[in-house]
């Protein structure tokens, strides 16, 4: 390559290099082509099939949130009045709390195991294997003769839910073009909220001594439907195929998702996303102007495992930030509503808590549907910050309504709480977590973050019943503090990921966290994409 025409720009300090005629007409820039790529119907079909597993997540979250199934006063009465304490009559508060929270324990197990499995076997086989736990969980719960056996079934259902949270948001991010990633990423949370709503509807006709078994067994239908459709509809993640050095298979899947004419463009943005941020800073050469996915590592750049790279100095900020996002999603108290809102409404004096549960889950669906459009206007980060403000005001309102025993006001503020959550942090957190990681470490990174999310959810699930008993009407006061801390965390640390490529997000972190690192680096020269040392 001829470097004789090089000259230095006095303003920018960059070295401009005149390329040889062989590269005078490089392929169009990724940013110019990403916006015009129109997916085929298969992209949307893939997302619809994938989020069937998210429906099981929402369903299992709220399937026990019915005061007719469990009310401490009714279950402690002797004899137990007919039509009360319908699930395993006579169970204790501790047994019920363990049964509710065992699902979260399973979620932790599933989320932590799924990352490595997904990296080894691929996204599609992992999702199909996850259905085994959906089937097992539904079958064991529906046929359980004791609350102990039912609890074991909840663990299996939790493993399935944890597996879906670890693999599906990342899968959606990998098959979507950058400009659609946030809009379509909310489909995962939409499916979760639909699960909440559907199970709340069943409480009006399945609140019987046997009806709860049909509720518990419904995920069997979801798993069967997924296994029927997945072999025909679902693609393997092209990003994963490129990562395991299967470019031909990746091109076939990209053609199914975006059409033959757009394979090159789609491959370009995936290659950009898969650029190794560590090797980039330690001497890598990327020949993007030749349309090649080639990285020439520096002599001292060794191969590292995904786990060690995640906790290296170059990716640790992303890792800690993603864990913080996961924690904020759970510790702000939303699961206290979905696990125990029937008790909250009983506490506020509502005669039929099922009405309150249904209304809350109904309004939870609506904002999630428009979340993608709102994010397009203000960005992910700003929308989440607005959500924290709404959640804080709602928590204050819930406390006031409980103190004043105003049941209509309690419904309004609980509904407002889940509305602001559903329009911001709820759906966007999954995509933000996935977007913070490069493709080659995303599965393991998301797995760790989702595991932390489940740990926080377990904390809320176990602690809230006793917190409510100790603080009575002031049980939401601790969440006011966690919401405030989460707001400060997002405001000061979390970047906006909307509409950005994975590499742009990595560069934003590098600019913020690596300013003090003064090492010789390869960088792009001027408008050319030829790397020069400087």
TrEMBL record:
It is found in: Membrane. Residues 46-498 form the Major facilitator superfamily (MFS) profile domain. One of its GO terms (cellular component) is membrane. The chain crosses the membrane at residues 96-115, 127-149, 155-172, 184-206, 212-235, 314-340, 355-376, 383-404, 410-432, 444-467, 473-494. It catalyses: D-glucose(out) = D-glucose(in); D-galactose(in) = D-galactose(out); D-mannose(out) = D-mannose(in); D-glucosamine(out) = D-glucosamine(in). Belongs to the major facilitator superfamily. Sugar transporter (TC 2.A.1.1) family. This is Hexose transporter 1. It comes from Phytophthora cactorum.
